[in-house]
Predict the structure.
Amino acid sequence: MPTGREPVNEPRVRAFVGLGANIGNPAAQLADALASLDAAGVLVAPSGVYRSAPIGPDQPEFLNLVAELAVSDGPYELLARCQALEAAARRVRGERWGPRTLDVDVLLFGEVAMGDSELQIPHPRMRERRFVLDPLAELAPELVTLGDVTAVADQDCERIGSVELLYQLAAAPPSNED
């Protein structure tokens, strides 16, 4: 018997977020963020896991990935979801490009192009970062050009495994490099 609460087939937008972490237990923080996105019903697919050199001050290497999402809310709601994931990982905003427990950036949101002080889509530095372009190309090769890849080819970034690797690494003791 219908309850009147059947899910409405809301239109969904294809969006991409970049995730990175380099202090605490980066693998666990990334795995937890993916689990939260999956539990919210928005995760379509994660890329593989990449290790990359930090940009900015001296700090440990990052683990990075990109997640493809299907969302029915707007770009600012997605930004709020990303910030909630960071808060859950106890992200502290210190120095620009400094170490972090979790960084989650909105990269793309459908065909939206916008920019204000709170949110810019596409992400303004996305095409300057190999740790974004390589995993994005895994999920959506049509969104990454040869010119994009060539421009960042000298950046230190390496695919270290599939997302299952996160769960193996997450079970390992945290690094002493915090």
